[in-house]
Amino acid sequence: MKTLPKRFNYAEAYLTFRCNLGCSYCINKFDGLKPRKEMTADEWADALNDIDFGNVSLTLGGGEPTQFKGFFELVDKLKMPIDLLTNLQFDVEEFIKNVNPDIIIAFHSDGAIQKIIPHLIEIGVDVLNPLQPECMDIFEIKRIYGDKLSFWGTIGTQTTMPFGTVDEVKEAVKKSIQEIGKDGGLLIAPTHLLEPEVPWENIMAFVEAVRDYGKY
Ligand code: SF4
Q1: Are residues 99 and 110 in the same domain?
Q2: What φ, ψ does residue 98 adopt, rounded to 5°?
Q3: Domain boundary at 70, 103, 136, which?
Q4: If you take atom 4 of ligand 1, which residue's CA is the nearest one?
Q5: pTM metric for this prediction
Q6: Span from the CA of 87 to the centroid of ligand 1 (angstroms)
Q7: Which of 54, 101, 148, 153 suits a disulfide with 131, CB 3.0-4.6 Å?
Q8: What is the pLDDT of residue 84?
């Protein structure tokens, strides 16, 4: 088995460059979308299952990855955690019918998405990423949906992480674990990538606070 080098924190398999949308800015169109030979689901599964991705989850992307002919078959065959980079223009009912029902589905969308949370629950989403304190009342969302969803995030990357003090970072982590992590269902994390302006002390404060308070 091959191992993903530790310096990599992202891995993506471009299953197909075809897409069911035609965005004018799509980089896949720059070569006129010449037909390309695509690998089969078995070929992808054999190649990808032979790699130890460590802590990195594999992203399935494209084009629109659900347009890949063996998409459902491949999802069921892959052994590592996967993300799906999708335009969401696919038949969710078909997806639910065809993939292993034990798969945990994490949905990513930045922004104020509280209005669509009931729909996400209805289509089978298990984990909401991120729970973003800059634009949603994260404690209220836990109160309303905490028995149906798990939450990923909660520590703001536009507020607390770059601009908070060390004590404010620790306090935010503590409050999040105690209130949103109550009875489980919290993957505590910054709500997005840490940008260069985040002070190193705040990163260390986050890690220390998770170690101090992150116990049930
Ligand atoms: S791959 Fe993305 S950018 Fe390109 S057409 Fe599809 S949705 Fe649009």
Answers
A1: no
A2: -100, -25
A3: 103
A4: 26
A5: 0.70
A6: 7
A7: 153
A8: 86
Q: Out of 12, 16, 33, 87, give the residue to mutate to test ligand 1, the one with the largest number of ligand atoms within 8 Å of its CB.
A: 87
Nearest protein CA to atom 8 of ligand 1, as residue? 23
The one-letter code for the residue type at 159 is: T
Instruction: Give residues (CB < 6 A) around ligand 1.
Output: 19, 21-23, 26, 28, 62-64, 87
Number of folded domains that form the chain: 2
As given in the structure block, the two tokens for residue 146 are 């905490």
Task: Please identify, by atom number, the ligand 1 atom nearest to the C-alpha of residue 17.
Answer: 1
Within 10 Å of residue 179's Cβ, how many Cβ atoms? 15
Which of residues 43, 73, 103 is at a domain's end? 103
Domain with 202 in it: 105-216
Find the 68 Cα to ligand 1 centroid distance in Å: 14
Ranges of the chain whose pLDDT falls below 50: none
126-180 pLDDT, tens digit each: 999 999 999 999 999 999 999 999 999 999 999 999 999 999 999 999 999 999 9
Which residues does residue 12 pair with via DSSP β-bridges, in sequence order?
Answer: 59
Q: Using CA atoms of 74, 64, 57, 176 in order, give the dihedral in degrees to the nearest 10.
A: -130
Same domain, 57 and 82: yes
- Percent with pLDDT over 90 in the chain: 65
Burial 32-65 (b: 16+ CB within 10 A, else e): eeeeeebbebeebbeebeeeebeebebebbbbbb
CA of 63 to the centre of ligand 1 (A): 6
